[in-house]
Amino acid sequence: MKLTKESIKHNVAWKGYRLPQYDIDAVRENTHKAPTWLHFGAGNLFRAFPAVLAQRLLTAGLSDTGIICCDGYDEELIDRCYRACDHLSLVVTLYSNGTINKEVVASVTESLKLSEDMLRLKDIFLAPSLQMISFTLTEKGYIIQDDTREFLPDYKHDRENGPEGCQSFFGKLTALCLERCRAGLSPLALVSLDNCSDNGTRLERAVRHMARAWQRNGFITEDEYYFLLKKNTFPLSMIDKITPHPDNRIADKLAADGLENAKPFVTEKGTHAAVYVNSESPHYLLIENAFPNGHPALEQCGVIITRRDIVEKSAMMKVSTCMNPMDTALGVFGCMLGYTRISDEMKDTELVNLITRLSEQEAMPMVADPGVIDPEAFLHEVLGERYPNPFLQDSPQRTATDTSRKIAPRFGTTLYAYYNSMLPAHRATRLIYIPLVLAGWLRYLEGVDDNGSEFTLSPDANIEHVRALMGNPKLGDDVSEAQLYPLLANRYYFGVNLFEIGVGETVVRMFGEMNRGPHAVRETLQKYCGEEQEQEWIFS
Fold this sequence. Notes:
Number of helices: 24
Shape: globular
Number of strands: 14
Largest sheet: 5 strands, parallel
Oligomer: single chain
């Protein structure tokens, strides 16, 4: 059986699959005429979460239009995951008890390529019915400057040359919003759904720097600039749903059902994909209530639409306390210790102690309770259900991707809070587990595992620069504080100068312990994260 619109009409062949319970053709016609929701970023998270939300709205009769997606980074996905499947997706939900749920999602009505479909995108932006544009670009997708604060070449080109013939994603996005402004239509909500802190602010910044340059260079008026940045909105959001690379075990199950072309693949740009996506059951989404032209009835599907400060607290809870820092810890240490599955790491006593103490003893004291999500319950779900799920084959190699861009938001905010705290118990110099993870990242960057064998580092555009800043140490080298200072004092990577706040020396010492030679990483973990160790012992 093929994942096509015609094939799913034969319900017998798709026994055991949840199929769309609405008129797919009518939804596509309605959406083409009067689109309400456009999404940029066609990867796994979009298919597993926003597209499913759109399906829930259609099934419940809360909407008669679907969602249009567009990709501008890895357009191979459009051909192989969307157009080859009549824009259908197969979403497989993996429960911790081994149960799986298989659902065909038909809410995506069109799939577009940014390089080819600008005319269609202009039509969509000029539709009075359009309410929101959402984004899953990944954290690195919002980077518009390099580490010297120079604008990236394509972004710089667009700033200098105006709205015509833009080369960068944000140049094209801003130009499309300008078309809507000049047509006299209502402003839109531009909603980042990326798993990073201040996601809406990052999106607003990328549009603002572009629009301000255009205004200063005479390409747009002050009123047009005002529309782009003050009439359009950039709501903050907090999104959480683990969506790992497609699992070959799931592909085998689907193939056994008779599904054709189930085997996962890797695109030329390195994206892991398949005609299906696999993900966990738990999910969270909060969005700031800032929609100038209305929004789909997402609150009817469990999305929390609320005040900005509540979204900020929820995002900070997740990004800096209850999940993302542990992702980094399991990522870098898992790679060095030879793990390929997060669930297997959760059987490792020292690693479980590391992330538990990191979150409960060091990060949790600085968390602000958002009120709509209980931080302790969220943390216990992560530690007790989500990470240990053996059927969700997430890997440390995936979570270690782009760590250089994640360290600052995941650890810098908490470190700065300790620096500003007036309580003696909250001195940054007393921290153990956060510095241990930071030292672990430095040790990871050598590309040598704990047995002394080389391994492939996860993709990260800044790896060579970071290694150069730390003097390119080798396993066994005696590395001084002076050698590591240029990196550990770098606010671009850590959000703070680690020496100024009192943890730089600790990181240097712990790195030295892990860098002694083979098996030193495990020995260091045993020293600080063994069952009998308590946080205070090292300072006594």
